[in-house]
Design brief:
The protein has 125 residues and is mainly beta. The chain has one helix and seven strands; from the N terminus they run αβββββββ. Strands 1, 2, 3, 4, 5, 6 and 7 form a seven-stranded antiparallel sheet that branches. The longest helix is centred in the first third of the chain and has 13 residues.
């Protein structure tokens, strides 16, 4: 019984997001808005999710995204799905993630400390 519990905990630890302190001391931030009304739905600090050298996450068939924008330190995209995340790879060498989200919204991620948004996207369903 204890062996099974440890196996489950190891599995969960290997497949969950790890929230780490930002190496440059300035966090990436985000806002989410309703794409129809423009009303802000939320804002906060994005999760540091490893380095940008990791493979780009795969978008599932149930996730639809459009109206992507990348400029300077900003990456934004509108998506609709049942359970999804948004990410940005920044020139400081790190990937930042927000979510999970359900339904339709527009997420805007801002890379920290003046670093540039190199690419971004969404994944999930």
């Amino acid at each position: 019984m204890q062996i099974k519990l440890v196996s489950v905990l190891v599995f969960l630890a290997a497949h969950s997001f790890t929230v780490r302190a930002d190496p440059i001391g300035v966090p990436a931030t985000y806002t989410t808005t309703n794409p129809t009304s423009g009303a802000q739905l939320g804002s906060g600090t994005a999760k540091l999710d490893g380095t940008r050298q990791r493979p780009k996450p795969v978008m599932g068939k149930g996730l639809q995204c459009w109206d992507a924008y990348r400029g300077g330190s900003i990456f934004a995209i509108t998506c609709s799905g049942s359970l999804w995340y948004e990410f940005v790879d920044c020139s400081n060498g790190y990937r930042y993630t927000i979510g999970p989200f359900r339904g339709m919204l527009r997420g805007t991620l801002i890379c920290p400390g003046g670093s540039l948004a190199l690419q971004g996207g969404a994944y999930g369903n």
